Amino acid sequence: EAEVAQSPRYKITEKSQAVAFWCDPISGHATLYWYRQILGQGPELLVQFQDESVVDDSQLPKDRFSAERLKGVDSTLKIQPAELGDSAMYLCASSLYIYDWASLNSYEQYFGPGTRLTVT
Amino acid sequence: AQTVTQSQPEMSVQEAETVTLSCTYDTSENNYYLFWYKQPPSRQMILVIRQEAYKQQNATENRFSVNFQKAAKSFSLKISDSQLGDTAMYFCAFMKLSVGQGAQKLVFGQGTRLTINP
Question: How many CB atoms are located within 10 Å of the residue A48 CB?
């Protein structure tokens, strides 16, 4: 069964350092999401891509976070510089397509295992 | 903006019992979907069940069923004959559909930690 891949699974970094996370969505999935999940809370969207275009990045702290999906396939999320408050699980999800009104299956989001970031 | 509220931070039941997790949401939208996701310890989040808002019939998936009350904006999850493998965090989530914009992000509740005891 196809899965969303993420790496690394765990990352420990010192504050003010740069850190990057990678996500490879399920093959053929046009939509990719990055969520941040603080311990004990539900995930919150950071950025949504449709192919290589950003659909929603309203909650992305753009002074320190950046995200790209250059070829519309895999994606990288970067934090520079990292702060203590960035410690969280970073989840990547993908879905087939967001504009197919006929099929809820095209909206269903499949999640990767996440990257657990600890900033010291 | 949409909000999702799960008022039960933790629940614990014995194996084989039935348990109901509560979820309420706030929205002014008419077209949306609701979901329950399960996040087992150290494992990835998976979809448990989904409900289209325009459907009056409650969704069911084997031992999982929902009670969708659109007017009350309530969406509870019932797990029947609970099993040890049901132990996990459960998240209620809302997804808006917009004409021209397609499916939007998932808005999650805070989660309910469910423990099934042997």
Answer: 25
Q: How confident is the model over A60-93, as pLDDT tens digits?
A: 999 999 999 988 899 999 999 999 999 999 999 9
The parent domain of residue B40 ranges over: 3-117
Residues in contact with A71: Cβ distance below 8 Å, sequence separation at least 6, in sequence order: A52
Q: B interface mutation test: which of A53, A90, A107 has the most B CBs within 10 A?
A: A107
* Chain B residues within 8 A of A93 when measuring between CB atoms: 106
Provide the domain count of chain B.
Answer: 1
A43 contacts on B by Cβ (under 8 Å): 45, 91, 106, 108
What's A14-95's CATH class?
A: mainly beta
Cβ distance B52 to A104 under 8 Å? Answer: yes
pLDDT digits (tens, 9 = 90+) for B8-65: 999 999 999 999 999 999 999 888 999 999 999 888 899 999 998 888 899 999 999 9
Domain with residue B26: its CATH number is 2.60.40.10
Residue-range domain boundaries for chain A: 14-95
Average pLDDT, chain B: 93
Residues 6+ apart with CB under 8 A from B4: A42, B23, B24, B25, B26, B92, B93, B94, B107, B108, B109
